[in-house]
Amino acid sequence: MAQKHWILTANASVARLFERTSLLEPLIELADWMHPEGSMLASELERAPLGHSIGGRTGLAPRMDLKHRERLEFAHQLALWLREAVLAHSVEDIVLFASDPFMGELLAQLDPGVQKIISLKHSLDLTSLPVHELERKVRVEFGV
Questions:
Q1: What InterPro entries has UniProt attached to this entry (predicted)?
Q2: CB 21 within 8 A of CB 134
Q3: What is the C-alpha separation between 12 and 124, in angstroms, rounded?
Q4: Which domain does 13 fall in, by range?
Q5: What secondary structure does DSSP assign to 85-117, as a single string?
Q6: How far apart are CA 12 and CA 75, in angstroms?
Q7: How far apart are CA 117 and CA 99, in angstroms?
Q8: Residue 85 counted as domain residue
Q9: How many CB atoms lie within 10 A of CB 29?
Q10: Which CATH number belongs to the domain containing residue 18 in this structure?
Q11: Counted domains in the chain
Q12: Is the pTM of this model over 0.70?
């Protein structure tokens, strides 16, 4: 059975997952995710006034930035999906390209089993590239 290598490109509002079994094979898009809240302005996301909140705690704590919260939510969603795929033995190797700061937020959400099979990661947003350009770029510049 051929090994499955995945390339995940992601930013705060879009993620695309590609697969290939060897460098000689073309990339095949397996899945994509949309999280439009990740590209909204904070004012569009606002549901409550900015400031501090007790929120059941004894002291005041600053509210989490809404854009940050949306990025974390999307990162968590992707991390859960990847965890299930790894547990199902659907993939042997993952290459990760994600925008900054989304890369750090995604890595922080990943299960140790998923982190273990990440062979390469770059803080680079490739989500908008057509598949033929993405394939050329990752093959030529990163040897993937």
A1: Host_attachment_protein
A2: no
A3: 12
A4: 5-41+61-142
A5: HHHTT--SEEEEEE-TTHHHHHHHHS-HHHHHT
A6: 8
A7: 20
A8: yes
A9: 12
A10: 3.30.420.60
A11: 1
A12: yes
